[in-house]
Amino acid sequence: MQILRPIEINTNQFVQISVDILEPQVQQHVIKLIRAKVIVFIHFGTLCSSFSIARKADGGPPPLRNRMHLWGLPGLAPRDQAKLQLGHEFMHLTVRWVRLLHASGLGWSVENPASSFLWEMPPMVELAALPTAKMFRLDMCRFASPHKKPTAVLSNVDLRELALLCDQAERPHSHEPLVGTVLYEGQKVFKTRLAQVYPSALCSTWAQAIAATGMDPLAATFQMVTPAAERKRPVGQEVPWKIHKQRITAEKANSAGYQLKRSALPPILATEMEPGRAVQAALHVIHPFTMDPALDPDLQEVLNLVSSQPQFVLGHRAGALRFWEARAHELLPVTDQWLRQVSDPHLRRLLRGQPDGQPLVLGQCTHVALWQEMLTAARCIDTQLPAALLHGFSIVGAIQRSHRWPALPVHDDGISVHELSDRAWEFFNKVVRNVKKCEVTENTEKIWAATMEDVEEGVTVGPMFSRDEVSAFLGTEQWIPTQRFEVVQKNKVRGVDSATVNGVNMATTITEKIELPSTDVNVAALRWLRSHVDKDEKIEGWVLDERKAYRQIGVKPDHRRWSVISLREPSTGKVSFFVMIGHSFGLVSAVYNYNRRSAAITDVLRRIFLVAAFNFYDDKYGFEPSATCSSAFEVAQKVHLWLGAQFDPKKLQQCRDPTILGVTYDLNDMLLKIKPSRKLELEEEISSILECQVFPPGQAGKLRGKLMFGASQLWGKIGRAFLRSLSERQYSKMNHTKLNKALVISLQQWLWLIKEGPPRPIEFAKPRTPDFVIFTDGSFPDGSKGSPTLPWIGGVLFQKGAQPLQFGAAVEFSLIEKWIPRKSQIAMVELFATVVALRTFSERLAGSWSLLLVDSEPVQGALVKGYSAREDLCELVSVFWSIALELKVQLYIDRVPTDANPADHPSRDRMQVGLCSILYARCGSALDLRAVLATALALQLGHADDIVALYLKQGTIPVAKKTAVAPLSVAIPAGIQIGWRILEVDGKAVPEEEVGKATKVLREAEEKMANRSGKASVSVSFLTEEPDHWKQAAKALSGSVLAADRGWLLA
Questions:
Q1: Whose CA is closest to 657, among 639, 637, 644, 676?
Q2: How far apart are CA 956 and CA 562, in angstroms?
Q3: How sure is the predictor about 856, in pLDDT bands with cuts at 50, 70 and 90?
Q4: Which strand (E) or helix (H) includes residue 139?
Q5: Pairwise CA distance, residues 914 & 752, whole Å
Q6: In the structure, what pLDDT confidence band is assigned to residue 138 with cuts at 50, 70 and 90?
């Protein structure tokens, strides 16, 4: 590596020629060298005098800036102002050139004193935020300097060898202060100026670190380009992407280690670039699954506090509990006065929690005055909620907004309240007819008993047995009933009110889209906590389940005519009616109105009490370190009690394995598990279906809904692939009930997943770059110029600082014939490439955080979704995710622009290009051993009954039939790099100068052997180009070669 002369204006023993870096021609020359990549590394000793913290008003050089005035102190003298501007000019020059070097994939470093204001300047702060930039701190005394001089170096090269701090405790020594002046060569100079010269020991260590970068095995790869004549889009053009409506949801899913959908987030590679640049960029991005979670700011702030300042949080909560408990009692008379002014007796009874004649009791009433004060203290955006709690909520027409959630566009596909009123008689008759058709069963008795319990608690009024009786109660004849029917859930009978068939929900206009936490958000929060609490600190969870949550909030009295429920009285069979005072379970508006209250309580818990709380409908829960979790659980119970949000004491949880929304969070082992009772229920149902062979569409829809939970929460994409056949049966227009082959396979796979599927891990993760980056591609003959004669797949695996690996293989037509017929099978071929890549590189990928980049949008979409509408694609996707699950690889899938895909060459039977640019920097007819093994694997996947194996034997590769090939190659992990050239195949010479000829001849020999019924061998003779490598390979593989009947089989 050659060293160019330094660019320095002051001459000394090291600088023989003065060069002013601010001269335009000098700058143009350096930029030209950078762009031509003649320079591989530049160091910037940026002028620090104007940024020095040593400048003080003590008789020496005066200060030019401070932290309040980074860009310069006001009122500087003209001379000092000039020095200030000169410093800025040097800084901007440094930043511009560093960014150019960074974009070109070249090395750089910037040095300044550790205390220099340069590091606080905004342009430098932005520079330090570059993905590959790292800050190294050192003390000059560690390199034989008489001064300590703490120094900082910012670089994109690993300079950890320089990061040595003062070892005065281990190596006693003194430091000469950098204060004052000294005579040097007959002139008086400041000591700080003399100390600008680097010690020779530092220079030597620095040079060694820089020289090591020239040995990067990826250096040739980073130079790969697509010829201009072959490029479809210009370099630098933005990759099209539109902001997606689910972007925030997708970010939260990423934080939980789950990819939502293909286009929900911007692509990793946002511009068209050369293949080498694409590899470099992909290796340095932050793996999306390890980025800091996109949590709500309130939640993030609380998690920061409970993890870093638990004692402060505990003290704050204790004080807040004392204050608000006192306020709850003090405000009770105010609430009593407000409730007495409610004119409607039934709403008043619901809010008071007991009859008028009895005193108000804290915990049994809706404490409206406390609601008002707490929401104000919590800065709750839903300022109209207390009034709605007091006077009741609208349930039809335009429902009042909370201004908490995103607005929804208003659609005209419903009916107006006026039309609903006009059609009241029509809907009444329709509902009553449906009620009369229902048989009276033991379940009817159970929901009747539950309804009568609601009457006793004041949340409904009834029963009434005539239309006139209900009309008299409501004061109008224009009212509509809603049928209440039974639903059996978990061996319990629950009454559900269907407000869809009677037009009530159709007349309801919701203008906000509710956003509630999902399992992904919970996992994201837990991953953040796990990564930020002390190693020995345990994490716990708490759960609170509100009791009859919808019933607790009142309906506006003049809207009750749309909230009358109807069912048959069990003993007589008569049609009965009940007028709901609280919300009915089947109302669309009930979901929205109730969640306003639930979200407001979460505001109170987070903002007033610093509790890491979540709300999902009537479930309230949270996760915190053990030190603060008990306190959080106490706060949650007391706040609900004071406000009058009643909960079920029997369902309270505080433990290290809470169950939330049917998922058990094992916080000991940090795993998500299916609840045992749900697991047993699903196993029994699927086993019963497989046994009786009957599966009607209705049951398919219900089972699919239950399994969707497992697909999204626990087993990811692999489960989704097995839902496709269930969906087809659910929506089938033919009234089929018998199981078909696809359904049997899907149900068997689901049964295995439920029984044996691994629990979902809650990974410990902090921002990190990917361990590996895989590019795959495929090609299919289409008759165009450059099109291959056979379908071909290829892939390349990259790792920082390691030799890249590539594979390429033909896809047999006998395999393609089994796919659904299409004009072009390119999508299947490219998808097949991803499956072969996972298996080929499996030993390296196992347990890693990796990226998979493909240039096919359909393939990316199918893999990210986990299924496809086409059966063969869906099956292959299932195989892909089965392998990923087996390997436990955290795989993020994204698209690489076609022109930037380095897998293009191996996917077109052009392995030799990779040998030049990727593997060995050597061209010719060399055939990579790993490519041969990958070809064998592709054949194995394509021929279930006719597997071709490759043998390695004294420089000959006989090809035999019906011999099992192990799924993994030991050649790759052994680090084998054998250069060899094919001389002849079965006696037929292979021209050395004809690129790609060896691969084609070998392929023909394999196909010929496959037709010989195994009666003879086909020999492949080759010449070893690197005998030493060959010997090393034989030694490395000696313990991994398996004895076989006909020779030695590479495992």
A1: 676
A2: 85
A3: very high
A4: strand 134-139
A5: 41
A6: very high
- Cα 306 to its chain centre, rounded Å, is 24
Return the structure tokens found at 995.
């690129």
Q: How far is CA 921 from CA 7, 47, 933, in A?
A: 34, 41, 21
Query: Residue 23 half-sphere exposure, CB side, CA atoms within 13 Å?
Result: 11
- Identity of the amino acid at 360: L
Q: Which two tokens stand for residue 557?
A: 């009295």
CB 555 within 8 A of CB 395: yes
CB burial string 142-171: b at 16+ within 10 A, e below: bbebbbbbebbbbbbbebeebbbebeeeee
Q: Which two tokens stand for residue 827?
A: 């999508």
CA–CA distances in Å: residue 257 to residues 510, 773, 908: 32, 17, 33
Taking the C-alpha atoms of residue 95 and residue 289, their distance in angstroms, rounded to an integer, is: 30
Which are the contacts of 201, defined by CB distance < 8 A and separation ≥ 6? Answer: 143, 144
Q: Is the pLDDT at 221 greater than 70, yes or no?
A: yes
For the chain, what's the residue count?
A: 1051
Would you say residue 994 has pLDDT above 70?
Answer: no
Q: Are 667 and 538 in contact (CB under 8 A)?
A: yes
Encoded tokens for 213:
């970068």
Residue 920 DSSP one-character state: S
Helix (H), strand (E) counts: the chain:
34, 33
Q: For the chain, how far is it from start to end, CA to CA, in angstroms? A: 41
Q: CB–CB of 37/103 below 8 Å?
A: no
Kindly list the distances between the CA atom of residue 260 and the CA atoms of 240, 852, 926, in Å, as whole numbers in the listed order. 19, 16, 42
Report residue 191 as tokens.
């000591």
Query: Cβ neighbours of residue 288 under 8 Å, at least 6 residues apart?
Result: 254, 259, 265, 268, 892
Q: What's the CA gap between 657 and 660, in Å, rounded?
A: 10
* Cβ atoms 658, 647 nearer than 8 A: no
pLDDT of residue 789: 81
Are 132 and 284 in contact by the 8 Å Cβ rule? The answer is: yes
What average pLDDT does the structure give for the chain?
81
Give the full edge-to-edge strand order of the sheet including 460-464: 460-464, 575-580, 564-568, 481-489, 492-498
Q: What is the DSSP letter of 271?
A: B
Residue type, 365: C
By the 8 A CB rule, do 770 and 849 touch?
yes
What φ, ψ does residue 239 adopt, rounded to 5°? -75, 125
Residue 993 structure tokens: 């100068």
**93 falls in which pLDDT band (50, 70, 90)?**
very high
- Looking at residue 674, its pLDDT comes to 80
Alpha-carbon distances of 1013 from 279, 412, 498, 1004, 1008, rounded to whole Å: 44, 70, 68, 15, 10
Q: Within 13 Å of residue 1040, how many CA atoms lie on the same side as its CB?
A: 18
pTM of the model: 0.61
Longest dimension (CA), the chain: 119
CB 463 within 8 A of CB 576: yes
Distance CA 769, CA 130 (A): 13
Judge residue 576's burial from the number of C-beta atoms within 10 Å of its C-beta, 0-12 exposed, 13-18 middle, 19 or more buried: buried
**Strand stretches in 17-75, DSSP E:** 41-44
How far apart, in whole angstroms, are the C-alpha atoms of residue 107 and residue 124? 17
Quick one: tokens of 384?
A: 């109209």
Task: Measure the CA–CA gap between 60 and 192, rounded to whole angstroms.
Answer: 11
> Computed from CA positions of residues 616, 620, 626, 631, in that sequence, does the dihedral angle turn out positive or negative?
positive
Half-sphere exposure of 11 (CA within 13 A, CB side): 4
Quote the tokens at residue 165. 């701090």
Q: What percent of the chain has pLDDT over 70?
A: 81
The secondary structure of 736-782 as a DSSP string is --B--HHHHHHHHHHHHHHHHPPPEE-----S---SEEEEEEEE---
For the purposes of burial, counting CB atoms within 10 Å of the CB of 227, is it exposed (0-12), middle (13-18) or buried (19 or more)?
A: exposed
